[in-house]
Structures are given as structure tokens and as C-alpha cells.
């Protein structure tokens, strides 16, 4: 979560618009082309529900669903959760204008705190959305635990709509994390700059090299920063960290999954996987799981 200060948010926006970074476009295609099918699966037998989005951002993808659900006169409230208070006030103000009739309660805070708060506001059926393959930014064990934690905040019959990036040609994956414009590189270096700004450190970002890797066997796409020289970095004027030349800093994992692995993760967390919605290239899936 530390990647996403104001600069990191801007860099991630740029990344989503760059040629090589495919996940956002794939998921947008799913949401724009399969809107009715996704919504009908969510609406089910028609009981009122709370549509809760974990990490809503600008809600571009969910807006497709919200619009369709309003047209169908579905009885639902939209509860976007985000760690950024700017995001939540933006959504609270803009969405009721672009989507008249939408009941929205934005919740600013950490996912599980806000999920508890959502339960205290209403006892309606819950449909949780966790999009963008954010699940991939956790190591597999932590991702499985996260799904179990989500399940523990739900009742049988509640749903999870989860967006997951799939294993594919390794060159396609690697290129997405090694774009020619160098946006991913700046996205990673921004974390060092953030430490400089907020923790009064003195990283020289020119002395670190962006090194992305993808292992097609495990599906782990990992980014590292490699120290170009022997160097000392001071943090808060107190702690000194010594890097030897070629030493690495592990920055981020973006795990890729097979459809079978996703279904197994659902079952392990006491969900039943009931549907997959794929983009035309089968590079990404939005899966629907029902809490058992
Ligand atoms: C937000 N998350 C799913 C992105 C990803 O693909 O792992 C973050 C990202 N990091 C580098 N590029 C994009």
C-alpha cells in the first residue's frame, strides 16, 4: 500500500494507460462486454444487497455494473472502501451526479475495519468486489489467508467478485512490468523517493536499477531494485543501511494464477466458485464465488 502516495497514484494511472500494461484493459473489456451476465449473477434471486468494493479507486470498472443495476431497478447500496480519503470524497460527490438514484456510502479506511463498519450499517446480503488483480500483490499464502479473512466477514450466500490476472505467455507478463517508457521503473523508484520525503532519508535513486522478473512455473512476477554500487543510505538521520553493489531490494509481487488455482483458492476459503468471466484473449478473469 506504500506505493500509492499522490505520486504513486499518478504513476499507476499512467501505467494503466501504457501500451504494455494489459490487466486494466482486459478487465475493462470484461466489465463493458459482460455487464449483463455479471449483474444477473450478482442479482441472483433478487434480494436487496450491499455492493461493497475493496479499493474502489476511481470506480471506472464498477460504474458499468452500477449503471446496469440501476437500469434494472435492482435494490442495492454501493459502499466503496478505500484507504484514500480523497478517493472516497470524490466518489461520494461525483457518482450520485453521473448515476442519479445511486445510494452510495463511501467508507474511508482499511478493508476489514470498513467491512465490519459496513455490517453494522446494514444486515443486507453482501456482494464484495475485489478487482484489478490486487490479490496478486500478496504472496500466495497471504492471498489465501486474505480470502479466508474476507469469508469470515460474510454469511452463507454472500458473494465475492474477484478480478485475477492469469498465467500467459511469459514475455507478455514481463513486458507489462518493464514498459518501454519506464513508468514501472519510476513507480518503484517513487517508493525510495517517498522514504526520502517522509522519513528524511537520502536514497540516491540514480544508484538503483529496476529489475523485473517473471517465473512461468510459479506465476510469480517480482520487481526488485538493484544497488548499482556499494553505498550507504541514512534514514531519519539515525539508521544507516549499507548496500553492497548488486544487492537487491524486493519491491513487489504480482502473482499470476491458472483458473484451477483460483478455483482451489475459493474452495480452501470456504467459497464455491460459480462463474468465470474472461476477456477475449483469456488473459484475465473476473470470478464469482459464493460463501458456503
Ligand atoms: C495494483 N496491482 C494489481 C498492480 C499489479 O499489476 O500488480 C500494481 C503494479 N505494479 C507494477 N505495475 C502495476
UniProtKB/TrEMBL annotation:
GO annotation (BP), single: methylation
Keywords tagged on the record: Methyltransferase, Transferase
Molecular function per GO: methyltransferase activity
Top-rank taxon, per record: Bacteria
Record flagged with keyword Methyltransferase: yes
Signal peptide start and end residues: none
Residues covered by the Histidine-specific methyltransferase SAM-dependent domain: 2-289
Protein name: L-histidine N(Alpha)-methyltransferase
Organism, as annotated: Mucilaginibacter xinganensis
Amino acid at each position: 500500500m506504500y506505493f500509492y502516495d499522490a505520486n504513486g497514484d499518478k504513476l499507476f494511472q499512467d501505467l494503466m494507460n501504457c501500451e504494455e500494461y494489459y490487466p486494466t484493459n482486459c478487465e475493462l473489456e470484461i466489465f463493458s462486454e459482460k455487464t449483463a451476465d455479471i449483474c444477473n449473477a450478482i442479482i441472483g434471486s433478487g434480494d436487496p444487497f450491499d455492493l461493497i468494493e475493496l479499493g474502489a479507486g476511481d470506480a471506472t470498472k464498477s460504474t458499468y455494473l452500477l449503471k446496469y443495476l440501476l437500469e434494472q431497478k435492482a435494490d442495492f447500496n454501493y459502499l466503496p472502501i478505500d484507504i484514500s480519503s480523497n478517493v472516497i470524497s470524490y466518489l461520494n460527490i461525483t457518482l450520485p451526479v453521473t448515476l442519479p438514484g445511486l445510494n452510495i456510502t463511501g467508507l474511508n479506511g482499511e478493508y476489514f475495519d470498513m467491512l465490519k463498519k459496513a455490517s453494522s450499517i446494514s444486515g443486507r446480503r453482501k456482494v464484495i468486489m475485489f478487482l484489478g488483480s490486487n490479490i496478486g500483490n500478496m504472496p500466495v499464502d497471504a492471498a489465501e489467508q486474505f480470502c479466508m479473512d474476507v469469508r469470515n466477514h460474510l454469511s452463507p450466500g454472500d458473494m465475492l467478485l474477484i478480478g485475477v490476472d492469469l498465467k500467459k505467455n511469459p514475455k507478455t507478463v514481463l513486458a507489462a512490468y518493464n514498459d518501454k517508457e519506464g513508468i514501472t521503473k519510476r513507480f518503484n523508484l517513487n517508493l525510495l523517493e517517498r522514504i526520502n520525503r517522509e522519513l528524511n532519508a537520502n536514497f540516491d535513486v540514480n544508484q538503483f536499477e529496476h529489475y523485473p522478473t517473471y517465473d512461468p512455473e510459479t506465476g510469480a512476477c517480482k520487481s526488485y531494485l538493484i544497488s548499482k554500487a556499494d553505498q550507504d543510505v541514512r534514514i531519519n538521520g539515525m539508521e544507516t543501511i549499507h548496500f553492497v553493489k548488486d544487492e537487491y531490494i524486493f519491491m513487489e509481487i504480482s502473482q499470476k494464477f491458472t483458473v484451477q488455482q483460483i478455483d482451489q483458492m475459493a474452495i480452501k476459503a470456504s467459497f464455491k466458485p460459480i462463474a468465470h468471466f474472461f476477456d477475449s484473449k483469456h488473459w484475465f478473469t473476473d470470478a464469482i464465488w459464493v460463501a458456503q
